[in-house]
Fold this protein.
Amino acid sequence: MDQNEPFFRLLRLGLGVADKAPWALGDNEWRSLHETAARQSVLGVVWHGIGCLPQEQQPPMDVALQWASEAERIRGLNQLQNAEAARLTRVFAEAGRRSMILKGQANARLYPERLSRQPGDIDIWVEGGRENVVALLEERMGCDLKKETSYHHVHLPVNGQGVVVEVHFRPSSGNFNPITNRRLQQWLEMECGCSYAVEESFSVPSTRFALIMQLAHIQRHFLGGGIGLRQICDYWLLLESARADDLREVSALLDRFGLGHTAGALMWLLREVFGLDESQMLCRPDKWRGEWMLREVMEGGNFGRHAPRATQGKWRRFFAGRVRRLRMLPFDAAEMLWCEVNYWKVIWRTIPERIRLRSWSLAEGRRKQQYQ
Protein backbone atom coordinates (compact mmCIF):
# COMPACT_ATOMS: atom_id res chain seq x y z
CA MET A 1 0.00 0.00 0.00
CA ASP A 2 3.04 2.34 0.44
CA GLN A 3 3.21 3.29 -3.25
CA ASN A 4 -0.43 4.43 -3.08
CA GLU A 5 -0.05 6.36 0.17
CA PRO A 6 0.09 9.88 -1.42
CA PHE A 7 -3.08 9.07 -3.34
CA PHE A 8 -4.84 7.72 -0.26
CA ARG A 9 -3.83 10.79 1.78
CA LEU A 10 -5.36 13.13 -0.80
CA LEU A 11 -8.47 10.94 -0.99
CA ARG A 12 -8.85 11.06 2.80
CA LEU A 13 -8.45 14.86 2.75
CA GLY A 14 -11.14 15.06 0.07
CA LEU A 15 -13.48 13.02 2.29
CA GLY A 16 -12.92 15.36 5.23
CA VAL A 17 -10.60 13.07 7.20
CA ALA A 18 -7.94 15.01 9.09
CA ASP A 19 -4.61 13.76 7.71
CA LYS A 20 -1.11 14.87 6.84
CA ALA A 21 -0.47 16.28 3.40
CA PRO A 22 1.57 13.95 1.17
CA TRP A 23 5.27 14.55 0.90
CA ALA A 24 6.59 16.71 -1.95
CA LEU A 25 5.69 15.12 -5.28
CA GLY A 26 7.36 15.45 -8.67
CA ASP A 27 5.51 16.29 -11.89
CA ASN A 28 5.41 12.65 -13.03
CA GLU A 29 4.09 11.56 -9.64
CA TRP A 30 1.27 14.10 -9.94
CA ARG A 31 0.39 12.80 -13.39
CA SER A 32 0.35 9.26 -12.03
CA LEU A 33 -1.94 10.38 -9.19
CA HIS A 34 -4.29 12.00 -11.70
CA GLU A 35 -4.37 8.78 -13.73
CA THR A 36 -5.15 6.73 -10.61
CA ALA A 37 -7.96 9.10 -9.59
CA ALA A 38 -9.43 8.88 -13.12
CA ARG A 39 -9.28 5.05 -13.13
CA GLN A 40 -11.06 4.96 -9.78
CA SER A 41 -13.65 7.63 -10.75
CA VAL A 42 -12.75 9.85 -7.77
CA LEU A 43 -11.28 12.85 -9.64
CA GLY A 44 -13.60 15.37 -7.97
CA VAL A 45 -13.06 14.04 -4.46
CA VAL A 46 -9.26 13.98 -4.76
CA TRP A 47 -9.30 17.49 -6.28
CA HIS A 48 -11.22 18.66 -3.20
CA GLY A 49 -8.41 17.12 -1.13
CA ILE A 50 -5.77 18.94 -3.20
CA GLY A 51 -7.53 22.18 -2.28
CA CYS A 52 -6.49 21.53 1.33
CA LEU A 53 -2.76 21.54 0.46
CA PRO A 54 -0.45 24.53 0.97
CA GLN A 55 0.50 26.45 -2.17
CA GLU A 56 4.00 24.99 -2.37
CA GLN A 57 2.59 21.44 -2.52
CA GLN A 58 0.09 22.03 -5.32
CA PRO A 59 0.40 20.04 -8.58
CA PRO A 60 2.15 21.54 -11.65
CA MET A 61 0.11 24.07 -13.64
CA ASP A 62 -0.77 21.77 -16.59
CA VAL A 63 -2.02 19.01 -14.29
CA ALA A 64 -3.86 21.51 -12.06
CA LEU A 65 -5.67 23.15 -14.99
CA GLN A 66 -6.81 19.82 -16.42
CA TRP A 67 -7.89 18.54 -13.02
CA ALA A 68 -9.75 21.76 -12.17
CA SER A 69 -11.60 21.58 -15.48
CA GLU A 70 -12.62 17.97 -14.83
CA ALA A 71 -13.73 18.80 -11.27
CA GLU A 72 -15.88 21.67 -12.58
CA ARG A 73 -17.43 19.34 -15.14
CA ILE A 74 -18.24 16.88 -12.33
CA ARG A 75 -19.93 19.70 -10.39
CA GLY A 76 -22.08 20.49 -13.41
CA LEU A 77 -22.98 16.82 -13.93
CA ASN A 78 -24.05 16.52 -10.28
CA GLN A 79 -26.29 19.57 -10.62
CA LEU A 80 -27.81 18.06 -13.76
CA GLN A 81 -28.31 14.66 -12.11
CA ASN A 82 -29.90 16.21 -9.00
CA ALA A 83 -32.30 18.21 -11.15
CA GLU A 84 -33.22 15.12 -13.21
CA ALA A 85 -33.67 13.00 -10.05
CA ALA A 86 -36.02 15.65 -8.65
CA ARG A 87 -37.95 15.79 -11.96
CA LEU A 88 -38.34 11.99 -12.08
CA THR A 89 -39.56 12.02 -8.49
CA ARG A 90 -42.26 14.55 -9.42
CA VAL A 91 -43.25 12.55 -12.52
CA PHE A 92 -43.75 9.34 -10.55
CA ALA A 93 -45.52 11.18 -7.70
CA GLU A 94 -47.99 12.61 -10.23
CA ALA A 95 -48.63 9.04 -11.38
CA GLY A 96 -49.38 8.08 -7.77
CA ARG A 97 -46.13 6.11 -7.26
CA ARG A 98 -43.67 6.42 -4.40
CA SER A 99 -40.03 6.49 -5.44
CA MET A 100 -36.56 6.91 -3.98
CA ILE A 101 -33.12 7.58 -5.37
CA LEU A 102 -30.61 4.77 -4.79
CA LYS A 103 -26.82 4.90 -4.54
CA GLY A 104 -25.26 7.70 -6.63
CA GLN A 105 -27.06 10.98 -5.98
CA ALA A 106 -28.27 9.75 -2.59
CA ASN A 107 -24.66 9.07 -1.61
CA ALA A 108 -23.38 12.38 -3.03
CA ARG A 109 -25.24 14.21 -0.25
CA LEU A 110 -22.92 12.65 2.33
CA TYR A 111 -19.69 14.07 0.87
CA PRO A 112 -18.10 17.16 2.46
CA GLU A 113 -18.30 18.76 -1.00
CA ARG A 114 -21.64 17.47 -2.27
CA LEU A 115 -20.87 18.12 -5.92
CA SER A 116 -17.48 16.36 -5.90
CA ARG A 117 -18.66 12.77 -6.30
CA GLN A 118 -18.23 11.57 -9.89
CA PRO A 119 -21.76 10.63 -11.00
CA GLY A 120 -22.74 7.64 -13.09
CA ASP A 121 -26.35 6.91 -13.94
CA ILE A 122 -29.46 7.67 -11.89
CA ASP A 123 -30.96 4.68 -10.06
CA ILE A 124 -34.53 5.27 -8.95
CA TRP A 125 -36.76 2.70 -7.25
CA VAL A 126 -40.49 2.96 -8.08
CA GLU A 127 -43.20 1.04 -6.24
CA GLY A 128 -45.59 -1.27 -8.02
CA GLY A 129 -43.59 -4.32 -9.07
CA ARG A 130 -42.21 -5.36 -12.44
CA GLU A 131 -45.37 -5.51 -14.60
CA ASN A 132 -46.91 -2.29 -13.27
CA VAL A 133 -43.70 -0.27 -13.48
CA VAL A 134 -42.84 -1.46 -17.00
CA ALA A 135 -46.43 -0.78 -18.16
CA LEU A 136 -46.32 2.73 -16.70
CA LEU A 137 -42.99 3.51 -18.39
CA GLU A 138 -44.13 2.15 -21.74
CA GLU A 139 -47.32 4.22 -21.56
CA ARG A 140 -45.36 7.39 -20.69
CA MET A 141 -42.60 6.87 -23.25
CA GLY A 142 -44.65 5.30 -26.03
CA CYS A 143 -42.20 2.50 -26.77
CA ASP A 144 -41.57 -1.18 -26.01
CA LEU A 145 -39.09 -1.49 -23.14
CA LYS A 146 -39.11 -5.28 -22.72
CA LYS A 147 -35.63 -5.69 -24.25
CA GLU A 148 -34.35 -3.03 -21.84
CA THR A 149 -35.76 -4.85 -18.81
CA SER A 150 -33.48 -6.95 -16.60
CA TYR A 151 -34.05 -8.89 -13.38
CA HIS A 152 -34.33 -5.73 -11.27
CA HIS A 153 -34.65 -2.61 -13.45
CA VAL A 154 -35.59 -0.98 -16.75
CA HIS A 155 -32.82 0.80 -18.63
CA LEU A 156 -34.36 3.95 -20.13
CA PRO A 157 -33.14 5.48 -23.40
CA VAL A 158 -30.53 8.20 -22.82
CA ASN A 159 -32.28 11.58 -22.67
CA GLY A 160 -31.36 14.71 -24.60
CA GLN A 161 -28.97 15.85 -21.87
CA GLY A 162 -27.08 12.57 -21.85
CA VAL A 163 -28.46 11.36 -18.51
CA VAL A 164 -28.72 7.58 -18.11
CA VAL A 165 -31.59 6.37 -15.91
CA GLU A 166 -32.32 2.93 -14.50
CA VAL A 167 -35.80 2.53 -13.04
CA HIS A 168 -35.80 -0.21 -10.40
CA PHE A 169 -38.87 -2.30 -9.68
CA ARG A 170 -36.74 -4.42 -7.35
CA PRO A 171 -34.51 -2.55 -4.90
CA SER A 172 -31.34 -4.44 -5.83
CA SER A 173 -29.71 -6.81 -8.30
CA GLY A 174 -29.04 -8.87 -5.15
CA ASN A 175 -26.89 -11.97 -4.74
CA PHE A 176 -26.04 -14.73 -7.18
CA ASN A 177 -27.05 -17.33 -4.56
CA PRO A 178 -30.86 -17.70 -4.94
CA ILE A 179 -31.39 -18.70 -1.29
CA THR A 180 -29.71 -15.68 0.29
CA ASN A 181 -31.00 -13.44 -2.50
CA ARG A 182 -34.63 -14.31 -1.68
CA ARG A 183 -34.10 -13.30 1.94
CA LEU A 184 -32.27 -10.14 0.91
CA GLN A 185 -34.94 -9.00 -1.57
CA GLN A 186 -37.77 -9.62 0.90
CA TRP A 187 -36.05 -7.54 3.57
CA LEU A 188 -35.24 -4.70 1.16
CA GLU A 189 -38.85 -4.61 -0.09
CA MET A 190 -40.06 -4.18 3.51
CA GLU A 191 -37.50 -1.42 4.13
CA CYS A 192 -38.59 0.55 1.05
CA GLY A 193 -41.32 2.16 3.16
CA CYS A 194 -38.71 3.88 5.34
CA SER A 195 -37.53 6.41 2.75
CA TYR A 196 -37.51 10.15 3.53
CA ALA A 197 -37.41 13.39 1.53
CA VAL A 198 -34.22 15.48 1.36
CA GLU A 199 -33.52 19.08 0.37
CA GLU A 200 -32.57 18.07 -3.19
CA SER A 201 -36.31 17.39 -3.75
CA PHE A 202 -36.13 13.62 -3.95
CA SER A 203 -36.39 10.79 -1.44
CA VAL A 204 -33.60 8.53 -0.23
CA PRO A 205 -33.70 5.17 1.62
CA SER A 206 -32.97 4.62 5.29
CA THR A 207 -29.35 4.16 6.36
CA ARG A 208 -30.11 0.49 7.20
CA PHE A 209 -31.41 -0.10 3.68
CA ALA A 210 -28.43 1.69 2.10
CA LEU A 211 -25.88 -0.27 4.14
CA ILE A 212 -27.37 -3.65 3.15
CA MET A 213 -28.24 -2.79 -0.45
CA GLN A 214 -24.88 -1.18 -1.25
CA LEU A 215 -22.92 -3.96 0.44
CA ALA A 216 -24.76 -6.45 -1.82
CA HIS A 217 -23.99 -4.17 -4.79
CA ILE A 218 -20.28 -4.10 -3.90
CA GLN A 219 -20.22 -7.88 -3.44
CA ARG A 220 -21.96 -8.59 -6.76
CA HIS A 221 -19.66 -6.34 -8.77
CA PHE A 222 -16.49 -7.33 -6.93
CA LEU A 223 -17.10 -11.04 -7.49
CA GLY A 224 -18.59 -10.61 -10.95
CA GLY A 225 -15.96 -8.35 -12.49
CA GLY A 226 -14.56 -5.70 -10.21
CA ILE A 227 -15.32 -2.70 -8.01
CA GLY A 228 -13.57 0.64 -7.59
CA LEU A 229 -12.85 3.17 -4.86
CA ARG A 230 -15.89 5.33 -5.67
CA GLN A 231 -18.21 2.68 -4.18
CA ILE A 232 -15.77 2.11 -1.29
CA CYS A 233 -15.82 5.85 -0.48
CA ASP A 234 -19.62 5.79 -0.56
CA TYR A 235 -19.68 2.95 1.95
CA TRP A 236 -17.23 4.66 4.30
CA LEU A 237 -19.45 7.75 4.38
CA LEU A 238 -22.54 5.60 5.00
CA LEU A 239 -20.86 3.95 7.97
CA GLU A 240 -19.70 7.31 9.32
CA SER A 241 -23.27 8.64 9.16
CA ALA A 242 -24.92 5.52 10.64
CA ARG A 243 -26.32 5.34 14.15
CA ALA A 244 -25.28 2.61 16.57
CA ASP A 245 -28.67 0.83 16.35
CA ASP A 246 -28.46 0.79 12.52
CA LEU A 247 -25.02 -0.80 12.70
CA ARG A 248 -26.20 -3.44 15.18
CA GLU A 249 -29.23 -4.38 13.07
CA VAL A 250 -27.23 -4.60 9.84
CA SER A 251 -24.48 -6.58 11.55
CA ALA A 252 -27.01 -9.19 12.71
CA LEU A 253 -28.24 -9.69 9.12
CA LEU A 254 -24.92 -10.18 7.31
CA ASP A 255 -24.71 -13.97 7.43
CA ARG A 256 -28.42 -14.44 6.74
CA PHE A 257 -28.02 -12.43 3.52
CA GLY A 258 -24.73 -14.09 2.51
CA LEU A 259 -22.71 -10.87 2.92
CA GLY A 260 -20.37 -11.87 5.74
CA HIS A 261 -17.18 -12.50 3.74
CA THR A 262 -17.46 -9.28 1.74
CA ALA A 263 -18.29 -7.28 4.87
CA GLY A 264 -15.19 -8.61 6.65
CA ALA A 265 -12.97 -7.74 3.69
CA LEU A 266 -14.50 -4.29 3.39
CA MET A 267 -14.10 -3.51 7.10
CA TRP A 268 -10.38 -4.33 6.87
CA LEU A 269 -9.95 -2.21 3.74
CA LEU A 270 -11.81 0.75 5.26
CA ARG A 271 -9.73 0.54 8.43
CA GLU A 272 -6.43 0.41 6.53
CA VAL A 273 -7.22 3.07 3.91
CA PHE A 274 -9.57 5.46 5.74
CA GLY A 275 -8.95 4.68 9.40
CA LEU A 276 -12.47 3.38 10.11
CA ASP A 277 -13.00 3.17 13.86
CA GLU A 278 -13.98 -0.18 15.39
CA SER A 279 -17.19 1.37 16.76
CA GLN A 280 -18.35 1.95 13.15
CA MET A 281 -17.59 -1.57 11.90
CA LEU A 282 -20.25 -4.11 10.97
CA CYS A 283 -18.10 -7.15 11.79
CA ARG A 284 -14.55 -8.24 12.55
CA PRO A 285 -12.09 -7.20 9.81
CA ASP A 286 -10.89 -10.03 7.57
CA LYS A 287 -7.27 -9.24 6.68
CA TRP A 288 -6.82 -12.06 4.15
CA ARG A 289 -9.91 -11.19 2.12
CA GLY A 290 -9.37 -7.47 2.69
CA GLU A 291 -5.88 -7.52 1.14
CA TRP A 292 -7.33 -9.48 -1.77
CA MET A 293 -10.10 -6.92 -2.27
CA LEU A 294 -7.68 -3.98 -2.10
CA ARG A 295 -5.41 -5.53 -4.73
CA GLU A 296 -8.35 -6.10 -7.07
CA VAL A 297 -9.70 -2.57 -6.49
CA MET A 298 -6.37 -0.87 -7.22
CA GLU A 299 -5.60 -3.06 -10.24
CA GLY A 300 -9.02 -2.98 -11.92
CA GLY A 301 -10.28 0.52 -11.14
CA ASN A 302 -13.94 1.45 -11.48
CA PHE A 303 -15.98 -1.77 -11.98
CA GLY A 304 -12.79 -3.57 -13.09
CA ARG A 305 -12.78 -1.70 -16.42
CA HIS A 306 -9.03 -1.03 -16.25
CA ALA A 307 -7.90 -4.56 -15.38
CA PRO A 308 -5.54 -6.12 -17.98
CA ARG A 309 -8.22 -8.65 -18.97
CA ALA A 310 -10.59 -5.80 -19.95
CA THR A 311 -8.37 -4.77 -22.89
CA GLN A 312 -8.13 -8.26 -24.41
CA GLY A 313 -10.11 -9.61 -27.35
CA LYS A 314 -13.54 -11.10 -26.70
CA TRP A 315 -12.40 -14.74 -26.61
CA ARG A 316 -9.47 -13.95 -24.35
CA ARG A 317 -11.84 -12.00 -22.12
CA PHE A 318 -14.17 -14.99 -22.08
CA PHE A 319 -11.43 -17.39 -20.90
CA ALA A 320 -9.97 -14.79 -18.52
CA GLY A 321 -13.41 -14.47 -16.96
CA ARG A 322 -13.67 -18.20 -16.37
CA VAL A 323 -10.16 -18.31 -14.85
CA ARG A 324 -10.90 -15.34 -12.60
CA ARG A 325 -14.03 -16.99 -11.22
CA LEU A 326 -12.09 -20.15 -10.41
CA ARG A 327 -9.47 -18.02 -8.69
CA MET A 328 -12.17 -16.17 -6.70
CA LEU A 329 -13.70 -19.39 -5.31
CA PRO A 330 -11.83 -19.21 -1.97
CA PHE A 331 -13.18 -15.69 -1.36
CA ASP A 332 -16.82 -16.86 -1.39
CA ALA A 333 -17.38 -20.32 -2.87
CA ALA A 334 -21.20 -20.29 -2.81
CA GLU A 335 -21.52 -16.91 -4.53
CA MET A 336 -18.90 -17.71 -7.16
CA LEU A 337 -20.46 -21.06 -8.06
CA TRP A 338 -23.88 -19.45 -8.48
CA CYS A 339 -22.28 -16.58 -10.40
CA GLU A 340 -20.99 -19.03 -13.00
CA VAL A 341 -24.30 -20.93 -13.10
CA ASN A 342 -26.15 -17.66 -13.74
CA TYR A 343 -23.67 -16.75 -16.47
CA TRP A 344 -24.35 -19.94 -18.42
CA LYS A 345 -28.11 -19.64 -17.86
CA VAL A 346 -28.01 -16.22 -19.55
CA ILE A 347 -25.86 -17.57 -22.40
CA TRP A 348 -28.29 -20.46 -23.00
CA ARG A 349 -31.39 -18.26 -22.80
CA THR A 350 -30.01 -15.70 -25.27
CA ILE A 351 -28.62 -18.12 -27.91
CA PRO A 352 -31.49 -17.41 -30.36
CA GLU A 353 -30.85 -13.65 -30.19
CA ARG A 354 -27.08 -14.12 -30.52
CA ILE A 355 -27.68 -16.20 -33.66
CA ARG A 356 -30.04 -13.56 -35.03
CA LEU A 357 -27.53 -10.78 -34.36
CA ARG A 358 -24.60 -12.95 -35.56
CA SER A 359 -22.58 -11.90 -32.54
CA TRP A 360 -21.38 -13.60 -29.35
CA SER A 361 -21.71 -10.24 -27.58
CA LEU A 362 -25.31 -9.07 -27.30
CA ALA A 363 -24.26 -5.46 -26.66
CA GLU A 364 -21.97 -5.45 -29.70
CA GLY A 365 -24.59 -7.13 -31.88
CA ARG A 366 -27.33 -4.69 -30.88
CA ARG A 367 -24.99 -1.76 -31.47
CA LYS A 368 -24.18 -2.97 -35.01
CA GLN A 369 -27.86 -3.55 -35.76
CA GLN A 370 -28.70 -0.03 -34.55
CA TYR A 371 -26.34 1.56 -37.08
CA GLN A 372 -27.27 -0.64 -40.05
Remarks:
- The chain has a mean pLDDT of 89.
